Amino acid sequence: MLNILGRPTSINVRKVLWLCHELDIPFVNTPWGDGDASRALDAPAFVALNPNKMVPVIDDDGFVMWESNSILRYLAATRERADLYPVAPRERARVDQWIDWQASDLNPAWVYPFKSLVRNAPGYDDARMVANSVARWKELMGVLDQQLQSTQAFICGKTFTLADIAVGLAVHRWFATPIERPPLDAVAAYYERLSQNEGFRRYGRNGTP
Predict the structure, then answer these.
(1) pTM (2 decimals)?
(2) Which of 34, 77, 147, 177 could crosslink 7 through cysteines, CB 3.0-4.6 Å?
(3) Is residue 52 part of a domain?
(4) Model confidence over 165-195: pLDDT tens digits?
């Protein structure tokens, strides 16, 4: 059985949990990094699985890997779900483009304000850094809004793909953070559209920011 290692409140762990729901994959979730000293991310047993000391990690019948977006691609490909992760190069590249945008552009913008305003994390109390990050976050959400205006459905077109899992959870975080948000109608409609998905309700819009 697939073992997903990582606390279920982690946004990156929730990506994998949501996809497993879509794929109907039986799994167990071992909550490494949840504050229990026996499951600390710097424990030798965990470092042996992921030297980066980050979640999630999966163990799929002895095949161990880390990096949430790579895990999404692996699981969809091995379960032959071309609807979620297309085989045709151009269609697949479009999904990859938005998954990578989420990791390289969108995530760095929201990390500081989220940790400051929601998590109250030590070291994230610089108001100027919050303001600058929020400004960049708004700019990127405007990019997403334009794309959703174009598709009028999901990120890559009329059908739900892996890109919607990666970006959809970040959209939930946008609405869960106490900031002043511009009126991005397409993003708001997309959020409600995702909320019709049982997996998103269970692992995204479930009360966890």
Answers:
(1) 0.96
(2) 34
(3) yes
(4) 999 999 999 999 999 999 999 999 999 999 9
